Amino acid sequence: MKKLFKFLWLFLGIVVFSSFVQEQCVQAGENLKIVVQKKVSVKLTDYKKVKVKVYYNGKDVTKEAKLSFKSSNKSIVRISKLENDDFDVIGFEAWPRKTGNSNVSIVAKYRPSHWDDEDYDDEDYDDEDYNDNNSEAPMITATKKCKVKAEYYKTLRADADLVDYNTRTNIFTMKVYNISNKTIKILSNGAMAYDEDYTVYDRKLKVIKGSTIKPGKTVMVKFKVIGSITWHDSEDFQICSYWKWGGKKYWVSVIPGEETWKKVGKKWKWIGFAG
Q1: What mean pLDDT do residues 253-274 have?
Q2: What is the pLDDT of residues 195-208, one digit of tens each?
Q3: pLDDT, tens only, 119-133
Q4: Per residue in 205-233, pLDDT tens?
Q5: Do 181 and 134 lie in a common domain?
Q6: How far apart are CA 23 and CA 12, in angstroms?
Q7: 118 and 165 both lie in a single domain
Q8: What is the 3-state secondary structure (H, E, C) of the chain?
Q9: Is residue 46 predicted with pLDDT exceeding 50?
Q10: Are residues 168 and 119 part of one domain?
């Protein structure tokens, strides 16, 4: 009977201690806070840096906390860690793959020490004591979500590249990826192929296939040379043509392996990379 009485007291003590530890962990977790934007937007072919802050009892512990990130829809947004010059994780980068929404789950883990809650003298501070104390403290966790919206540009934007010239068919092929929110219509009127060295190789062109590119679509646009064949190497050419977008016409230049530009007034404005 005496042994049973001791066992019951021991069991009761364990239960009480366990409840105390759990309560302490919950209270500590409530003191750990993640601060991040609730919503961010990022344009196609671009990326967004999103900074994250972690606070424990009002103190910035971002560098000491362990941060992890997960996208709810990787087919829309891919996530990578954002680091500073000291390789501390200070947030995440959102890389869109297509338009849509994805929720990024952020988890912060932090192991507090008694230094977080108590004042101390510099003379009494000991790295070994800190590390020992820190390793024994319970790990606490906080979570947060950030909504990332991947969207089209609201101006004429496209990644375009001149990928081929076939001397048998006398056709230039241009690859165009429309990353804007409206349809692009490439016009035959005024379309030209300009040789970088000699004007004798310049040719007028006519669009015979793929003149319409809807938002988010990639199309191989075919330009038929009007007249005789020209120089065989497409790398030597620049294709210029009128693109209709949003009710307006723009004179657009595409150079193999380089950037895509539109002319606004007397100036050229960048609208995309090579496709």
Answers
A1: 95
A2: 999 999 999 999 99
A3: 444 444 444 444 444
A4: 999 999 999 999 999 999 999 999 999 99
A5: no
A6: 17
A7: no
A8: CHHHHHHHHHHHHHHHHHHHHHHHHHHHHHCEEEECCCEEEEECCCCEEEECEEEECCEECCCCCEEEEEECCCCCEEEEEEECCCCCEEEEEEEECCCEEEEEEEEEEECCCHHHCCCCCHHHCCHHHHHHHHHHCCCEEEEEEEEEEEECECCCCEEEEEEEEECCCCEEEEEEEECECCCEEECCCCCEEEECCCHHHCEEEEEEECCEECCCCEEEEEEEEECCCCCCCHHHEEEEEEEEECCEEEEEEECCCCCEEEEECCEEEEEECCC
A9: yes
A10: no
Residue 228 sits in a domain whose CATH number is 2.60.40
pLDDT at 120: 43
What's the predicted TM-score (pTM) here?
0.76
Provide the residue range defining the domain that includes 195: 158-272
Quick one: 51 and 131 in the same domain? Answer: yes
Residue 15 lies in a domain: no
For residue 251, count CB atoms less than 10 angstroms from its CB and return exposed for 0-12, middle for 13-18, buried for 19 or more: middle
In a domain, 208, yes or no: yes
End-to-end Cα, the chain, rounded Å: 85
* Residue 147, domain CATH: 2.60.40.1080
Residue 54's pLDDT band (boundaries 50, 70, 90)?
A: very high
